[in-house]
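Work Package 4 report. The design task specified in the project plan requires that, given a folded chain encoded as structure tokens, an amino acid be chosen for each position. We show below one input record used in the internal validation round.
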């Protein structure tokens, strides 16, 4: 008799890291100021531009960590 297929789930604790680039831009009191300036841009603008790379790095990190933990869980089930 064959084993029933294992239901795939996206419930991985690494997914909580995805809240960082979502919540951080909402906290404007952290970056609502003009100094320090970078290349003539006030802090408010250049700090917001950092959120795009932060979101990308966080997403890639969560993807690889989730994939790795999924593989290790699968190996434990098989062996």
């Amino acid at each position: 008799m064959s084993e029933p297929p294992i239901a795939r789930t996206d419930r991985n604790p690494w997914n909580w890291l995805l809240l960082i680039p979502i919540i951080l831009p909402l906290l404007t009191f952290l970056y609502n100021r003009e100094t320090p300036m970078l290349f003539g841009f006030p802090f408010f603008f250049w700090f917001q531009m950092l959120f795009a790379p932060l979101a990308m790095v966080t997403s890639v990190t969560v993807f690889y960590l989730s994939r790795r933990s999924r593989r290790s869980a699968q190996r434990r089930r098989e062996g």
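The chain has a mean pLDDT of 85. Validation will be extended to a larger panel in the next phase.
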